[in-house]
Amino acid sequence: MTRPIIGRVAPEQWRSTGATAPGQRTVGEPGTARIAVDLLGGDHAPAVVVDGALRAVQDDPSLHLILVGPAEATDAVFAALEPAQRHRITVVLGDSAVRAVAEGRADAVVSAGDTAVTVVSATRALGCWPGVRRPPLAAVLPTATGHLVLLDVGSTVDPDAETLAVHARLGAAYATAVHDVPEPRVGLLTIGTEPGKGDRLRRAMPRRLAGLPRYIGLVEGHDVVLGEAADVVVTDGFTGNVLLKALEASYSRLGGPESTRAAVLLGVKGVVVVCHGAATGADLAGGIAFAADLHRRAAIAAIVTSLSDNPVLTYNEVSHD
């Protein structure tokens, strides 16, 4: 898997019709979304990333992309676009796509690169909300009754009880603020619903989650598919990632419901969307559209507002200026 490089961009490394020099903050037009995309992220980069970028730009006339990576990789994008569309593409030669968000040149970032590198880059460049030490990745899955938020799906594979409790609260706030679930039911994924089921971490969680307004207790794997018991299911990143990939493969092979094959990193001061390393061009386009939608919804501010009554996660500084 290709690993993105963390660092800065020299001013002469910008290529665009009307590019802004690094360090100079810009503000997009109302309705526009400026998405930084990691060209070198993913098992099949840069080809699938270029394909996804092209699809995304053609699908959304208000989308502006900052492609971070080698200039030659973007030639196909410029060649396929109409001349009037090319001004919506900016190329930054080789470095961190997350930094474009931190410096105010992009509204969100999308990467299919190494998850650990993306998470570390985001926490260092953007910063975490107070009370969040290890931000989780949240995915929205289709269920038999609608949709369900599953987290963590790969960011923190070995959380402690405190971290998992914070993740549960973040997932509930995300479901409320972005997916219009006023009082989300939160369940803890384990191997049975009887009290005391699971490993030491799972057995320690019920008393920590008891303060959540609608903590419904333990849930099992089938509850994630059915969606009848909970609106948010919390687990460690190892289990969540295995479950997510198993469900996506099953849906794909068996003709099940489609979903956006991307996850949002919750708890950092910016919109960060992570796609699978094996993402296709369509997956990357979906991830870019997802990131643009989160920006247009002002998702970060909405989640913060939902958390405002929680003293553990009070976050008053939404911007990272």
From TrEMBL:
Its EC number is 2.3.1.274. Residues 1-28 are annotated as: Disordered. One of its GO terms (molecular function) is phosphate:acyl-[acyl carrier protein] acyltransferase activity. It is an enzyme of class 2 (transferase). It is found in: Cytoplasm. SUPFAM superfamilies: Isocitrate/Isopropylmalate dehydrogenase-like. Its main location: cytoplasm. Keywords: Acyltransferase, Cytoplasm, Lipid biosynthesis, Lipid metabolism, Phospholipid biosynthesis, Phospholipid metabolism, Transferase. It catalyses: a fatty acyl-[ACP] + phosphate = an acyl phosphate + holo-[ACP]. GO terms for biological process: fatty acid biosynthetic process; phospholipid biosynthetic process. One of its GO terms (cellular component) is cytoplasm. It comes from the Bacteria. Pfam families: FA_synthesis. Homodimer. Probably interacts with PlsY. PANTHER family: FATTY ACID/PHOSPHOLIPID SYNTHESIS PROTEIN PLSX (PTHR30100), PHOSPHATE ACYLTRANSFERASE (PTHR30100:SF1). This is phosphate acyltransferase. It comes from Actinoplanes regularis.
